[in-house]
Amino acid sequence: MRAWIVWSTGLLAYIVAVLDRTTLGVTGLDAAERFGASPSMLSTFVVLQVVVYAGAQIPAGLLLDRYGSRVMIVSGGTLMAAGQLTMALAESLPAAVIARAIVGLGDAFTFISVLRLVPYWFTERQIPLVTQLTGIFGQLGQVLSALPFLALVLGPGWSTAYLSVSAFGVLAVVLSLTLVKDTPTGRAAPVKSATVRETLAGLKTTWLRPGTRLGFFTHMGTQFSVTVFALMWGVPYLTVAQGLSRGIAGTLLTVSVAAAITSGIVIGIFTGRNPHRRSHVILGIIVSNALIWTVVLALPTRAPLWLLVTLVVVISAGGPGSMVGFDFARTFNPSRTLGTAVGIVNMGGFLASLVVMQSMGMIIGAAGGYSFASFRLAWMVQYVVWVIAIVAVLITRKKARRTIGEIDESQYLLEFFDDGRLAR
């Protein structure tokens, strides 16, 4: 029972992180009006948050290995609460940009820290499913941004909405201080201090493990489409290009969360029982994302609502699909550097997301602003990432399988089937 309490508290911190991450996505047009931002500037606004998030992953992973989950979750929550408070009071674009950068930094600390709790508190067979549950239930933060947060923005206003989110973050920090423990016996053994050269050598070693790279490209190919949709361009696309009301657009984001929860449970159970088929699931998700976008973008006019619902449901599987990348990292890395490995994997999807978000903003601006045609053209940049991800997954999967026999069982967190075969 204690394990579930610790995990649930960490999960609450992650829910708040997702809420903070997606608040600007549902208020993008409000932000453009409030701060006088063009489409290109608005995308830069959000991209900065993602740049900070992605760029902080490796430092956050190193700090996580040294200080443990509790310290990092509390630090991340404090930063995000401060960022949202600044956002509530900001009346100029520079202040808002700084606020989103602070949110991105705090967000970087949170997710990987919650994930690191799982191997310490749960059994080997529980880990894949609990990892999936962490990702999918964390997306409840997106529901909070799409419904109550948006209602506050449309009602009491911008400042009240962001102040409320900041207060919620403070609550999560207090609960984390009270209830979260790194391991059942207290703090995890920290990684000893290292020189810059030793740190860089350790990073290189972690990256060169094929399982780490397989996790990185898994995360890249599955996660970016739904992230770009939820974090930045989904609501503007649905309202401006597809002609839906903001209420219906918010409901579709809620449908996205429901779809992610459902698919995540299925993926978690399947990969837990069939770890040797994990990469097949990943390739299926990437291909299905590309196919549904092809159907929608091929239409010369606005898509029917049922097709837009289908689009949201299909791309939403990318969120839980990306969690399989962390399972690859866990399988092929020792526990003492797991935080670093998870940080590297987590960069994959967000690096792809920031490139796509910024590219879309530039394309929309160059095409004359928000319109059906400009959005249709902008979404096409996704295909480049999908091709890169598919090729990289196929290559790194082959290399990971070749190294299985070379892995020292005493060093790594490995999964075995009942008949003794190593998971891959």
Automatic annotation (TrEMBL):
Q: Which superkingdom is the protein from?
A: Bacteria
Which keywords describe this protein according to UniProt?
Cell membrane, Membrane, Transmembrane, Transmembrane helix, Transport
Task: List the Gene3D superfamilies.
Answer: MFS general substrate transporter like domains
How does the protein associate with the membrane?
Multi-pass membrane protein
Annotated localization: Cell membrane
Q: Where is this chain primarily localised?
A: membrane
Family annotation (PROSITE patterns) = MFS (PS50850)
Any matching Pfam family: MFS_1
**Which InterPro entries did the record assign?**
MFS, MFS_dom, MFS_trans_sf, MFS_Transporters
Membrane-crossing ranges are 41-64, 71-90, 96-118, 130-154, 160-180, 214-235, 247-269, 281-299, 305-326, 338-357, 377-395
Major facilitator superfamily (MFS) profile domain location is: 6-401
UniProt keyword Membrane, yes or no: yes
Q: What is this protein called?
A: MFS transporter
Q: Which organism is it from?
A: Mycolicibacterium komossense
